[in-house]
TrEMBL record, chains A, B:
Organism, scientific name: Aulographum hederae CBS 113979
PANTHER family: DIPHTHINE METHYL ESTER SYNTHASE, DIPHTHINE SYNTHASE
Residues covered by the Tetrapyrrole methylase domain: 1-236
Pathway, per record: Protein modification; peptidyl-diphthamide biosynthesis
Residue runs in coiled coils: none
GO molecular function terms listed in the Swiss-Prot or TrEMBL record: diphthine methyl ester synthase activity
Similarity annotation: Belongs to the diphthine synthase family.
Protein name in the entry: Diphthine methyl ester synthase
Length: 287, 287
């Protein structure tokens, strides 16, 4: 049996009791480690599980999935995924391959940022589609997120923005010299995301994510160091220190709000006067 | 400390290792038991935890929350919530009360139907706002869901529909006789939901949820008995037996689809010829 097991969001103890039982008895244990990361190292998982964990990078999952699935018709193979196995990144391709090979499979769900963002106090019913934000470079500044964001904004819905992470990215400079060297991991911050949003708004000018819009910066959701910071995008552009270490996500607020959401968020406002003023002007009573 | 702990979706082993450690050491353990249920009885939780669990019904949470919070500044109180503590039903009001009393609080996330529905193979990025469907009665047929559904449909987004459950509902007939008797629990089925959707479409006629629309029926998501059934709403209206026991949810498909979604869903089609025909006509290449 192939088991896709969600690990939750923070550390080795966020696995479910059911998931842990499978990890302990499986023949092989893989960890998908290129689309999301836990806040702890692989070694901490291994010592908690009492066994070896094989890192499955993008290349292995995309090109060598049959190695992962080898003998899974006769023995148990665990494929660990940070968050939920079908959360922000789905592993439907691996399951389709298992189906084609007649390998039985099942999944053990866990917390995903898509639902755990509810800890911000924002009601999940009021969220529209989720979008992701990639790191802009000098030559690549994809603004396709803007159209989807605009759809949510026009309906007054909140938008969860998932921020880019770069792990095991080959250095282009080293490649030019014929070598494969990996760049150190990079995690987009709320401030970087806010700056990219404001920048694209300045080009497009449709009033979607200008600097006076309210947003929630979320850091280390699901961990004991979870933190929410609330402000205008302009304020969040500067909030490097307030947010602390990765991982970060951002929610752009829609105007279809509830008073309970305001009461919940206000506690975390970078500046309560600014929050009150902007809320009253642009959000209150609009739902 | 007040701990809001997600229990996940199916049984006693879906709690996280971290959550279980807190349950074992807390002074008191409450189970919120009116907005969602596990697929197992309270006694099974109690025997797994090795301790008593206090049922917190709506009345207790809404009117006697200070009893739940008593002494939580000095000792640990666990408040268990099926799914994620801030999932489909949020408990922000309990947290706001804790804040007002200066009681420290934290939450332990877990799987919510809002993310676990990804096991259907539908990409969570392609979902719009979540809606809920209540049981219609002869005199109360709220169709406000239709406007929100229409918003998602116009954007081509999938819609997760959460289905009504009725637990501990007083019998109106008995109340008329001056007695309080509770009705047996009721759980809306996919077929009932599909019938209500088609019925409202017949009134409103905006092409939002007519009987030729494709939808996914989901049963017992997150459990070993998880099942997905795919068909038109017309087909799902009749799919009582195929779905099996509760809990059910439904996803109305949007046209913004991916070929991988089709490949994944087709396996579960009630009739693959009908699925292929409707997909080709109304969904394929529309994204």
């Amino acid at each position: 049996m192939l088991y896709l097991i969600g690990l939750g969001l923070a550390d080795e103890k966020d696995i479910t009791v059911k998931g842990l039982e499978i990890v302990k008895r499986a023949s092989r244990v893989y960890l998908e480690a290129y689309t999301a990361i836990l806040l702890v190292e692989k070694s901490q998982l291994e010592s908690f599980y009492g066994r070896e964990v094989i890192i499955a990078d993008r290349e292995m999952v995309e090109s060598a999935s049959d190695d992962i699935l080898a003998n899974a018709d006769k023995e148990d193979v665990a494929f660990l995924v940070v968050g939920d196995p079908f959360g922000a990144t789905t592993h439907t391709d691996l399951v389709l391959r298992a189906r084609a090979l007649s390998i039985p499979h099942t999944s053990i769900p866990n917390a995903s940022i898509i639902s755990a963002i509810g800890a911000s106090g924002l009601q999940l019913y009021n969220f529209g589609q989720t979008i992701s934000m990639v790191f802009f470079t000098d030559s690549w500044r994809p603004s396709s997120f803007y159209a989807r964001l605009a759809e949510n904004v026009s309906l007054g819905l909140h938008t969860l923005v998932l921020l880019d992470i770069k792990v095991k990215e080959p250095s282009l400079e080293a490649m030019a010299r014929g070598k494969i060297v990996y760049e150190p991991p990079r995690f987009m911050t709320v401030a970087e995301c806010a700056r990219q949003m404001v920048e694209v708004e300045e080009e497009k000018k449709e009033g979607v994510c200008g600097e006076k819009k309210l947003a929630v910066g979320a850091a280390r959701v699901g961990s004991a160091e979870q933190k929410f910071v609330v402000g205008t995008l302009e304020q969040l552009c500067e909030a490097e220190e307030e947010m602390g270490p990765p991982l970060h996500s951002l929610v752009l607020l829609g105007w279809r709000t509830h008073d309970l959401e305001r009461d919940y968020l206000r506690e975390w406002a970078l500046d309560k006067d600014v929050f009150d003023e902007v809320w009253k002007r642009d959000y209150e009573g609009k739902g």
